[in-house]
Amino acid sequence: MFDMSHLNSSHIHQLADMFRLLGDPSRLRLVIALCGGALPATAAAEAAGLSPQLASHHLRLLKAARLVRGIRRGRQIYYDVADDHVRHMLADMAEHVAEPHREDIALDDHLEPTA
Q: Which residues neighbour 82 within 8 Å (Cβ) at sequence distance 6 or greater?
């Protein structure tokens, strides 16, 4: 695992900016859609439920933050997650959100059944 004790102030600010970008549900839906593989901007927009114009705006921001990358194929640009770090981070956080909370499990064990 990466030793985070060596992160400097610049790294912390970059991380905060990345998480701020991913804090927008529309941008998060775009990145999640791209975790399945590269898509043209119009398909990414459709998968995220966004207009092509809004998706294009969000993709530019995500690309500037190195969360996604653009790949030219002929006349179209396909977008994909920047690398496996992004894919793994989102998968890990999604798994974290989906798993039961330990406090909830402990509380359930102590509750008496209701009639």
A: 66, 67, 68, 69
Fold of 8-110: Arc Repressor Mutant, subunit A (1.10.10)
pLDDT at 106 over 70: no
Distance CA 87, CA 80 (A): 10
Distances (CA, A) of 31 to 5, 8, 91, 101: 28, 26, 11, 25
- DSSP class of residue 24 equals S
Residue type at 6 in one-letter notation = H
The whole-model pTM stands at: 0.82
